[in-house]
Every structure is written in structure tokens, then in C-alpha cells.
Specification:
2 copies of one chain form a homodimer. The first copy, chain A, has a 6-stranded mixed sheet with strand order 6-7-8-3-9-10, with helices on both faces. Chain A has 228 residues and is of the alpha/beta class. Chain A contains 7 helices and 10 strands. Bound molecules: adenosine-5'-triphosphate (2 copies) and magnesium ion (MG) (2 copies).
């Protein structure tokens, strides 16, 4: 489903270029549950942004379901992002002036889903993450972990076939983290959703069937794990 | 050094009041290293905001080094925050349009420290968190964990006697987290800095000599730990 070949990403910030990704070859198959680990600054979020069609590599190619993403125009990439991909951002990226419910509805608005159906599906997503009782709240009225869970609900509401989650449990206590990972696991096992999840916590990586380790913009380890 | 008595915090968001803190009695002694744990939404950040003089309780009193904080005016509280307290925010709260170095310098600007001395001390703080090579970068050019480390450096630069850190390792890999906790431990042991740290990770809480657990706005456990 995903094929990155020779991917590099260089940022030009100030005087010195930053080689965020140096050479990435990566194949991910439909229905896999992959954890990405690595030190702070090693390139994980940059990799996720490319996978999520939010950014383009400086060199190399990205084939998503056989389609060369670099050949697509802006609208086509937006359409893929909205239809196929759910993205939980490391910084949440919620709209500050709208409610939790409206934040979760956003992907459905882009998809043209009618208002009543939109609200119904968004409420389901919010209750899955334990926030049904806070749908009217704005992000600044929510705790850090509650904001993170709104971001998770928004990523799930469009029934994506690919879920990209960048540190989705970073602000959650252990028990809430395990609840969320249980949701992801069920989606992977029962709905066949492909999941790529960045985490720095080994207990969270344990839910994945494959662990990819990044260091200084390269993949230094790619390990399949046997699960019962 | 810190005495909270009968502290309550009620938010009025929409139709239903939110009892973020219901009844908090808490005493913290000079030089202690306290971890605060609890579920997402249980009131930890609200408690930290009151301790950091950024917010006032709805009821109850807060004595900081024997001074009744509620008796102080806005300027006096700002002066305490700048002089005595270092705060690492759960959401970092960096200024987006200025460099990492300038973000770290901010508390020193408020304290009236001259420019050369300011830059020198800020560079030391950035190198302590491993970001000396990125002082010119703006927050949007930094990874999540790098932004978190800039926030940590900023909290330390004014040599505070009280460090309040809200999930300071939430975006950091295990090794970087342990490096940061080593810095905090050294400051506590050698400089006698009082540290109150919110975390959801038991391995991080292990660095503390006391663990306070919050649930639904109340303290349900307060446990001192023997350390070698
Ligand atoms: N400005 C506000 N208006 C309304 N409710 C608020 C506001 N700020 C916080 N709350 C609510 O108060 C409760 C406690 O929030 P707080 O941020 O202290 O939780 P927390 O323990 O830090 O959670 P987390 O671990 O998710 O960061 C939550 O239910 C939150 O939604
Ligand atoms: N817009 C940008 N301009 C310059 N450098 C950037 C930019 N975005 C990211 N970087 C740099 O690229 C490198 C990789 O960043 P990335 O966000 O992918 O790291 P990460 O592995 O997600 O880290 P973390 O675990 O801290 O979130 C870092 O050194 C970062 O500072
Ligand atoms: Mg990242
Ligand atoms: Mg919090």
C-alpha cells in the first residue's frame, strides 16, 4: 500500500541545511500495524508528513496504493488526504474558535456529508474517546489530553483506510492510553485499517506488529514482532 | 514553602460548571521533588496553574513562602513568577515568531538582565537540553520534542527556586527523557530547587521522592518514596 524509495527531505533554515530525512526506503502492506520510534529530532514527524501527503520529499518517490503521489496536483492530494487518510498530529492542530464537535466534523464537511449525519458520526467518534459530554467545549476549555483525544476522534470520523498517528498518547495517562490503543487495535483487526503510529513509549509500541526505528533521518532497524 | 488549603476551581463553560478542583489541601516543603499523576482531565494542569500564580482558585487559599498569593496584585504576582518560578507548560507556549535563543531569553528580559549576559546564560540553558546548534531556529522549524526542550531551557534560565513542569517529557524519547530528568535531579539535589512535575509515566515519577495522585479534582493518594 505504501512505498517510499530513496526519500530525502532537506530543510533550509538559516545558514545550515537540515537533513531531516537522508535516505528512506520503506514498504508498508495493507492492514499492517507499524510503530515508528526514534530520538527527538530523528525525522519521525517529517516522515509522517510525507506519508500523509502534507509535504513532498526533496528527492525520491512515494507511491500510495500504486499511485505516484508526486504526480498529483494540490487538489488531488487534498482529496486523498480527506478520503483515505486520518492524521493525528503531534501538536493536535485543532481549530481554536470552534467546539470539539465542530472540530471532529471538519473532515465530513470537506466530504460533503449532510449536517445531521455529520453530527451523528462525530458524536460517535467523541464517545469512542470518552468525550461525549464535552462536545460544546472549545480547545482552550479542554485539558491537554482531552485536546489530544479530540484530534484522535477527528482522525477516525471519516473511516480512513490509513491512520497516521504522531505520538497520539503523549499527553494521556496510562489507562486512557490503553483505551485508545484498544480502539486502534480493534480498527486494525476488525476493519483492516492500516496504522502507522509514532511513539516513544515501548508499552505503546507493543501493540504494533512491526517496529521501525529512525535515527538521524535513516531507518536503522525494521523488526517484525510475533503476536499471539 | 507551598500551602494550598481548601482550594477549589470551578470553570463556567457553556451550560454546565466544570469542577476542575474540588478540594485540595497540599503542603510541599523546600527542596522536595514531587510527581503529580492522574487521569486525563483530573485537574493536574489546573493545579499547576494555581501553584504558578497564573490562575486564582475559586475558593481556598494559597500561601507561597508564607505569603498569601491572593493578597497580591497583578504586578506582584508577575514579579514572583519571573523571579522565583520556572514553568514548563504542557503546550510549550513558545513565541512562534522568535528564535529558540530569544524564547529562552524572555524571562531574563523581564528581569532586566543586560543583553550579553542574557545571551550567555540562554546559550548555556540551550546546551543543557542539547539544542545549542539550533539557537536561531523558530519553533515551526523544530520537532515537537525540540520545542519541548526549548520550553524547558526557558524555565531554567532564571535560576528559579521552584520548578513547575507539566508533562515535560511527553514528546521526548526515552533516552532524551532520562537526560532531562537527570538535569532536574541534579538541580534538586545540588541547587536545592523544589520541583513539582506532572507526568503520566511511572518511570518518570520514579525520579521523585513523593507521588501525589489526583482524581476528579481531589488528591486521592500522597505517598513518600524511600530513595537510596
Ligand atoms: N478554561 C476552561 N473552561 C472549562 N473547563 C476547563 C477549562 N480548563 C480546564 N477545564 C476542565 O477542567 C478539567 C481539568 O483540566 P486539567 O487541564 O487540569 O486536566 P489535566 O489533569 O491536566 O489533564 P491532562 O492530563 O489531559 O492534561 C478538565 O475536565 C478540563 O476540561
Ligand atoms: N520547517 C523546518 N525547518 C527546518 N528544520 C526542520 C523543519 N521541520 C523539522 N525540522 C528539523 O528536522 C529534524 C526532524 O524533525 P522531525 O519533526 O521529523 O523530528 P521528530 O523525530 O518528529 O522529533 P520529535 O520526537 O522531537 O517530535 C529536526 O532536526 C527538526 O528540527
Ligand atoms: Mg515529531
Ligand atoms: Mg494537563
Amino acid at each position: 500500500i505504501i512505498e517510499l524509495a530513496g526519500v530525502e527531505k532537506i530543510y533550509f533554515a538559516g545558514s545550515v541545511p537540515v537533513h531531516a530525512l537522508r535516505h528512506i526506503d520503506l514498504e508498508i502492506y495493507r492492514g499492517e500495524f507499524v510503530a515508528i520510534m526514534g530520538a527527538s529530532g530523528s525525522g519521525k514527524s517529517t516522515l509522517m508528513n510525507i506519508l500523509g501527503c502534507l509535504d513532498r520529499p526533496t528527492r525520491g518517490s512515494y507511491f500510495l496504493e500504486g499511485v505516484d503521489v508526486s504526480e498529483l496536483d494540490k487538489d488531488q492530494r487534498a482529496s486523498i488526504r480527506n478520503g483515505k487518510i486520518g492524521f493525528v498530529f503531534q501538536g493536535f492542530n485543532l481549530l481554536r474558535r470552534t467546539s470539539a464537535l465542530e472540530n471532529v466534523e471538519l473532515p465530513l464537511i470537506y466530504s460533503g456529508v449532510p449536517a445531521a449525519e455529520r453530527a451523528r458520526r462525530s458524536r460517535i467518534a467523541l464517545s469512542i474517546v470518552g468525550l461525549a459530554h464535552r462536545e460544546e467545549s472549545h480547545p482552550n476549555q479542554l485539558s491537554g489530553g482531552q485536546q489530544q483525544r479530540v484530534a484522535i476522534a477527528r482522525a477516525l470520523v471519516n473511516n480512513p483506510s490509513l491512520l497516521l498517528a504522531d505520538e497520539p498518547t503523549g499527553n494521556l495517562d496510562t489507562r486512557t492510553s490503553l483505551e485508545i490503543m484498544g480502539v486502534f487495535q480493534a480498527l486494525n483487526r476488525d476493519a483492516g485499517i492500516t496504522i502507522i503510529l509514532v511513539t516513544h513509549e515501548p508499552d505503546i509500541a507493543d501493540f504494533a506488529s512491526r517496529v521501525v526505528t529512525v535515527r538521524d533521518g535513516r531507518i536503522i532497524e525494521d523488526r517484525r514482532v510475533r503476536r499471539v
